[in-house]
Design goal:
Two copies of one chain form a homodimer. Chain A is an alpha+beta fold and 253 residues long. In chain A, 30% of the residues lie in helices and 34% in strands. The structure holds a DNA duplex (21 and 21 nucleotides).
Chain lengths: 253, 253
Amino acid sequence: MPARSHYRRVTDELRDAIERGVYPPGSLLPGEHEIGAAHGVSRATVQNAIKVLRGEGLVHPRRGRAGAGGGTYVRAIPQIRRRAVTRYRQGAREANAARGAFDTEIRSQGMVPRSDVLVAVVDAPERVAELLGTRQVVRRERRMYADDIPVQLAPSYIPASIAEGTVLEQADTGPGGMLSRLAELGYPQSRFTESVRVRRATRDEQEFLDLADDAPVMEIWHTGWTAAGLPVEVTVHAVPAYGWVLDYEWDDE
Amino acid sequence: MPARSHYRRVTDELRDAIERGVYPPGSLLPGEHEIGAAHGVSRATVQNAIKVLRGEGLVHPRRGRAGAGGGTYVRAIPQIRRRAVTRYRQGAREANAARGAFDTEIRSQGMVPRSDVLVAVVDAPERVAELLGTRQVVRRERRMYADDIPVQLAPSYIPASIAEGTVLEQADTGPGGMLSRLAELGYPQSRFTESVRVRRATRDEQEFLDLADDAPVMEIWHTGWTAAGLPVEVTVHAVPAYGWVLDYEWDDE
DNA sequence: TCTTATTTGTTCGTATGTATT
DNA sequence: GAATACATACGAACAAATAAG
């Protein structure tokens, strides 16, 4: 009887318990020995089960003594909806003095947005250089949080010829964010292309997003174009694959 | 320096070997004992490594005697690009007597498309009923292949009031596929919405797409609307998360 | 600062089960 | 039935991380 192997049964039961609130977000799962005893299986089997949940980003173990620090924690997974078409509209970006699309987006879903930015002039990665047609770029590396939970890592690239020496090299780009400033600089964007794929998280992403090392992320390559067909900005969004929903809409022709 | 664990090292080396063509698609990896001997680790460690590759859909073990059947196979992962906006245009769908969007899409990428369809009148799943505003629907369950490799599972739902007794209940919907027939029936679609998320594969999907049971799939909810704002078709595409790239494009306002 | 207790992380060896030819 | 190779499980051991004392 293949039925269901032990570790899958344990996986399902733990997941179920988590989803039904027996172990609410932020709480601690019982220790591995304890779970094993409760289900009548060995610790190795419990670990197999937990490994699956880790890959799903549902739990998040830390070594160390229980009580403080150690144990396997249930993660709060913010389910975030990203409305690609509407989020870039000027009205949305600048509503209530928001600092751009992410700000508005998170707030509209009842969470508190926060983000850090690291700016530098760098050599563009190959694919970015191809898209922008130049190697010299200003990189704005953003790390974003919702309710203080890391939810997105997104470096943006703008040709240095456009951004260098402007407000785009500062952390806070003001109301409406980067797109509003680019428009003021003479590069209003009117067309967007996005490319979505799923891949394993990189080391950096694992660390920042607190993901298991075989956890999937969605990678969104976003390019903004002027009416003349000039690409002026590329952003590579990386988000935990299980935590986001991407919405698109368009008219035929 | 955490000093990579053994199984991660083995994972990386196997993945690297696969990507560099040492083990080409369709070929057989060495047995688990053999890999273990080659890397100086136990079989359990090798299995940990292979489990990761399985989750990525890169390999695909089968039990049974070597030489025929048994062993761990390297999967041919067709990398497929789905151009959401262009694929639904009439010109694209009907080019060269194609049977719809998928046909054209796969052919344009140098592969041979094939698909099976199963049609039935059913009660719509809840979310579908909400979207279409009716419970009675015709379901067209499509299983799609590229170069004879299963690449997509996609049930479509059309209100029974529209589809029942029409060509839409037949397997082959003719040149241009479902959308062209719906247009002829008086329901041309002019607006589309899509919603993308990542989730674990269901049992059915695991089996058909030949995925590990914790493998991620991308789920694309596609809705087609008439100019009057009537939803006439919902399709839920499920594809292996690591094998597809989704392209979108739109103009601002 | 050092030690210690606790908890997860990795590995091994071994055994048994299951699918396939 | 026999042989092969993957699938799961157990028990044990030690490593690494973390915090408390």
